[in-house]
Peptidase T (Alistipes putredinis DSM 17216), 405 residues
Amino acid sequence: MELKDRFLKYVSFDTQSDESSETFPSTAKQRVLLDYLAEEMKALGLTEVTVDKYGYAMGTIPATPGCEKAPVIGFIAHVDTAPDMSGADVKPHVIENYDGKDIRLNAGVTMKVADFPELSFFKGHTLIHTDGTTLLGADDKAGVAEIMTAAEYLLAHPELRHGKIRIGFTPDEEIGRGVDFFDVKAFGADFAYTMDGGFEGELEYENFNAASAKIEIQGRNVHPGYAKDKMINAIQVACELNALLPAWERPEHTEGYDGFYHCIALNGTVDQAQISYIVRDHDSARFEARKNYMQECVDLLVRKYGEGVLTLTLKDSYYNMRKMVEPHPQVIDKAIEAMKMAGVEPLVKPIRGGTDGARLSFMGLPCPNIFTGGMNFHGRYEYCSLTTMHKAMQVILNLAQLWTK
């Protein structure tokens, strides 16, 4: 199957994950695609194809004769789409030879180059975008399609020498649970790559240290006409807490290695409110300082309003994979070489987010992240370059061969 057709097939599956769910995968519809991928792997001729009770789909491309002793490498992608926007009934549009101008998604929504200047890079590419009513699902079905199409190519071209290759597809990456039950030993790879990056050439082996912060606020509701010195408005307390956090350290004002506090939810009434954040920083010392500052802000308001008014729950999500990948420089060196062989200029940069690879690296599987060609993830302006997707697939093919040398 052609890469484009495979990608369009995968985005037709609604695989949105659900942070409020207590099941794994968090949504049954993810399992539908994972089971489909397992059957497709069998049909292509992969061996050792499994789907375990948690939904992880794995398969093997056997080593070509004479390459059995080469390191076992893996390629991993996630099937779920972000809860931020619907991924149901996706209606992708294909633009051949993109002219570099604004893209009309629908009668009321236009993706403007002035708002998304990266579009100018893709002039002449084949682009796939949404109709403006859903996200596209390139995060990370572009990676899934690239891995599967590369697998099909390797199996059809036995003259390409490579060692044993393991393929893995995971659920629930978008809600931070993607490798909660991933069996690294069963996967059996020495090194792996997540195909989950964006812009052409991205190679990432540094990511944020990440934590979640949830503050429960118990107010005191009194008739507003008689509220003086009695009422505690939980909504106002939440706003006061948010105002204590530096405004210049929000995502919309940061880049590169800058960390941030990001308010992701605020709900409540006068009587009760909840406010939630994600806390991020690449540097571990600054990461700890951010969490400490969040605690200090809550403690300050507790002193002001009294015990029991604010309750903070802080939970670490993942850590910067750099210290786990750097002891294995060949993982990065070969990725850089594979990109250059594909005519791609490597862009080694920190991830301003996280991938399954971050946690996998701490689980003993060094796992940097490689571009897929998707852009503007998680919303109506998501698109991907099929031209870049072909280059990402070529990088996979190059890596497969480079690890025999």
